[in-house]
Amino acid sequence: MGGDRNFTAKLDSVFTEPNKVKVGTYRGMIHEMTEMVMANLGQYAHGNQPIQHMVYLYDYAGQPWKAQFHSRDVMYKLYNATENGYPGDEDQWTNIIVVCVKRFRLL
To answer: Which of 20, 24, 49, 98 has its CA 20 to 30 A from that of 34?
Structure first.
C-alpha cells in the first residue's frame, strides 16, 4: 500500500469522507445505513461487522493516538445510555465484546 503513511492516509479518509449512502438494490435506507449517517463518522459503518477492527489498525501503523481517538468517538457516539446507545441488530453482540476487550484491555 505504499508504507505506513499511505496506509494511515487511507484509514483517515474513511472518517473524513462525507457520510453519503447509495442504497443500491435495497430500494431504501436500511438500519445499518441510517446508523452510519446518524453517527456522523464519515464512511465508517460500525453496523457492518467487518469494519469494526479498522480503528485499531492505526496501532499497527504507528499512530496509536488515532486508534484511541476513533475508538473513543465510536464508543461515545454508539454505546451510551440512550435509546440509540446500542447499534445494530441481533448479531451485533460482537460489538460489545470488541468494545469490552479493548476498553478493559482483556487481551
So the answer is: 98
Q: How far apart are CA 32 and CA 43, in angstroms?
A: 12
| 49-63 pLDDT tens trace | 778 888 989 998 999
DSSP 69: H
C-alpha cell at 34: 441510517
Q: Which residues contact 44 (CB under 8 A, 6 or more apart)?
A: 14, 15, 36, 51, 54, 55, 70, 74
Rounded distance, CA 29 to CA 90, Å? 18
- Does pTM top 0.90 for this prediction? no
